[in-house]
């Protein structure tokens, strides 16, 4: 028996922590689930490892997708963070981008991650070319840092004007603070986001600082827990862009885990689409709290160079382009009393504790899962996952108490209305995402996974007009399998000053060599981030051939803009602002095709024996 027999993928969701085990002896896969432990995520992860039964000495590696960083932002549970910025620019975090967040244009009140009293101005100034106009006042840096420490700040972001052109003042401020800020939780805007957008750079630096102490503590907790269990296997985190990296990289770059968990599912979807020879695929990952959609073309998930996390706060982080709607199996069903018959589903969720009413853990509010159980769409027996059975009694009572009076229906009829509303939201969301990319539902396949995705998939596809639905094996833990499929990778976003016509193949190779210090062995994935004229909206144009001519690139971009927007912008007005580069330095640690075949054979033999 090999000492490195098992490879493990783990995905921590809002309700469950999933673990997929690949047995190197025969290539088979197995799924285990445990409730997520929000108060200490590491406890649930270690419980999942124990439940898998894999001996610590026989674990070859662990790949981990996590929502810790995302939840910390959404729940405002990051570190107390201060900001040093150029005099006159302390309120840059308050600025919006002018885009509507809802159909009606309404936006909730916005509270920046850094309160105004923790944003300190420092006298210094560079011009737009990076030349020094006013030297840095070092005494002001020291005084501001001291004041922030006295107010309880744990992390610090430094974002000076035009530091993307010249980071000399930011670097000098860090040198000054090395003795005054001993915990090391200090982030420079010129390093976190070296691009000419002051608002984006400040927000990115602040969010990185906000997450640094939390993720450092999380990584340390996991490493300590693994040591205590006797596990010495290498440990990889899944990045937002779909690759994987070491814990040390996550300590230095915590933003890379913002979409870590959902990125694993999109990576798995890309591998499955490639295996099945599907050209255009939409993945629908529906867990307990959200409905996450990614578009896959030719086996590769669509990428993006930034993310808008909440209330218009956009940060520069390379990631799989995952789009989320606040509807999942645990989404609460409620009546809006301001609207007659105003049934609402989500975005609030029952979470893992108490969870849906049918979980029997004290939940009294009905959810999508309760509605599915009442309509016979779910099997109550979950012994195959080592979980207690679902109980229709509490689901019936929850629906009777919360929904039936407002609709004048019995619980089963009310459950049908609940699913009609929920699925209408999913259909509208999917249709919007496909249309934005010029995709037609009739030529798209749907891969549905997550704990709730397969239950809704056929109905959603029928309403949308999608002709083919794929439910992958281990769908309930597919993001954990995707984490296992994610290869080691290095990710870079590189500033570019060129138009679509003037970016030559030679210049493109120079940029890549600079980003990876000339070491480009492996599989390279590239995408150009483009802006049309003064339009703030950005497009992504994948690069599959480094030697592609400017004319060929322009033709590809025009084909995209015609299908998505109905326009053909002049190439001279299309600016290349950034290059997103992902260098996969190895292959997936498992062969998906062989593992699925081996697992099917095992299950068939087990079924035949019974």
Give a brief description.
The chain is built from 17 helices and 26 strands. The strands form 7 sheets. Strands 3-2-1-4-11-12 form a 6-stranded mixed β-sheet.
Task: Describe this entry's structure for a reader.
This protein is an alpha/beta fold and 610 residues long. The protein contains 17 helices and 26 strands. The strands form 7 sheets. The chain has a 6-stranded mixed beta sheet. Helix 9 (368-374) crosses helix 10 (392-402), helix 10 crosses helix 12 and helix 12 packs across helix 13. The protein is globular and about 75 Å long. The protein starts with 5 loop residues before the first strand and ends with a helix.
Please state the average pLDDT score: 87
* Structural class based on helices, strands and sheet pairing: alpha/beta
Rg measurement, Å: 25 Å
Can you count the beta strands? 26
Taking the alpha carbons of the first and last residues, their distance comes to 28 Å
Spatial arrangement of strands, main beta sheet: 3-2-1-4-11-12
Helical region count?
17
Instruction: Assign a percent range to the helix content.
Output: 25-40%
Strand content: 25-35%
């Amino acid at each position: 028996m090999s000492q490195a027999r098992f490879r493990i993928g783990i995905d921590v969701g809002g309700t469950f922590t999933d673990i997929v085990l690949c047995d190197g002896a025969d290539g088979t896969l197995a799924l285990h689930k445990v409730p997520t432990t929000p108060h200490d995520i590491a406890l649930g992860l270690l419980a999942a490892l124990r439940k898998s039964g894999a001996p610590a000495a026989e674990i070859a590696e662990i790949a981990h997708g996590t929502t810790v960083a995302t939840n910390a932002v959404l729940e405002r549970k990051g570190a107390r963070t201060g900001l040093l910025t150029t005099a006159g620019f302390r309120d840059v975090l308050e600025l919006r981008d002018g885009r509507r967040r809802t159909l009606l244009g309404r936006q909730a009140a916005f509270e920046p991650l850094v309160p105004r009293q923790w944003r300190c101005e420092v006298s210094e100034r560079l011009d737009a070319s990076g030349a020094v106009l006013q030297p840095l006042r070092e005494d002001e840096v020291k005084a501001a840092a001291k004041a922030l420490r006295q107010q309880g700040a744990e992390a610090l972001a430094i974002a000076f004007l035009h530091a993307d052109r010249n980071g000399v003042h930011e670097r000098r401020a860090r040198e000054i603070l090395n003795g005054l800020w001993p915990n090391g939780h200090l982030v420079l805007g010129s390093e976190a986001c070296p691009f000419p957008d002051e608002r984006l750079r400040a927000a990115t630096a602040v969010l990185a600082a906000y997450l640094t102490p939390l993720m450092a503590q999380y990584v340390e907790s996991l490493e300590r827990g693994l040591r205590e269990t006797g596990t010495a296997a290498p440990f990889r985190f899944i990045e937002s862009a779909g690759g994987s990296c070491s814990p040390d990289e996550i300590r230095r770059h915590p933003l890379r885990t913002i979409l870590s968990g959902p990125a694993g599912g999109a990576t798995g979807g890309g591998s499955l689409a490639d295996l099945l020879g599907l050209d255009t695929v939409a993945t629908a990952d529906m867990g307990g709290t959200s409905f996450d959609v990614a578009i896959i073309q030719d086996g590769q998930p669509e990428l993006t160079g930034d993310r808008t996390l909440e209330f218009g706060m956009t940060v520069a982080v390379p990631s799989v382009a995952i789009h989320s709607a606040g509807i999942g199996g645990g989404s609460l069903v409620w009546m809006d009393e301001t609207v007659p018959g105003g049934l609402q589903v989500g975005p609030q969720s029952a979470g893992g504790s108490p969870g849906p009413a049918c979980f029997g853990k004290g939940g009294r509010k009905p959810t999508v899962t309760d509605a599915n159980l009442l309509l016979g769409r779910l099997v109550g027996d979950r012994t195959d996952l080592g979980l207690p059975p679902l109980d229709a009694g509490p689901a019936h009572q929850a629906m009777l108490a919360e929904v039936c009076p407002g609709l004048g229906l019995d619980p089963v009829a009310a459950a049908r209305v609940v699913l009609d509303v929920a699925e209408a939201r999913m259909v509208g969301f999917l249709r919007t995402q496909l249309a934005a990319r010029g995709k037609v539902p009739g030529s798209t396949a749907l891969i549905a996974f997550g704990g709730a995705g397969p239950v809704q998939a056929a109905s959603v596809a029928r309403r949308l007009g999608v002709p083919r639905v794929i439910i992958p094996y281990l769908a309930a833990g597919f993001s954990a399998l995707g984490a296992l499929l994610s290869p080691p990778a290095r990710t870079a976003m590189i500033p570019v000053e060129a138009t679509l016509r003037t970016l030559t193949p030679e210049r493109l190779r120079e940029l890549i060599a600079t980003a990876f210090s000339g070491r480009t062995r492996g599989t390279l994935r590239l995408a150009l981030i483009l802006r049309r004229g003064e339009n703030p909206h950005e497009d992504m144009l994948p690069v599959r051939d480094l030697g592609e001519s400017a004319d060929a690139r322009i033709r590809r971009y025009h084909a995209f803009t015609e299908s998505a927007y109905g326009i053909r912008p002049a190439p001279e007005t299309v600016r290349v602002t950034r290059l997103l580069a992902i260098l996969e330095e190895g292959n997936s640690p498992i062969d998906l095709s062989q593992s699925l075949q081996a697992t099917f054979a095992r299950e068939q033999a087990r079924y035949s024996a019974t």
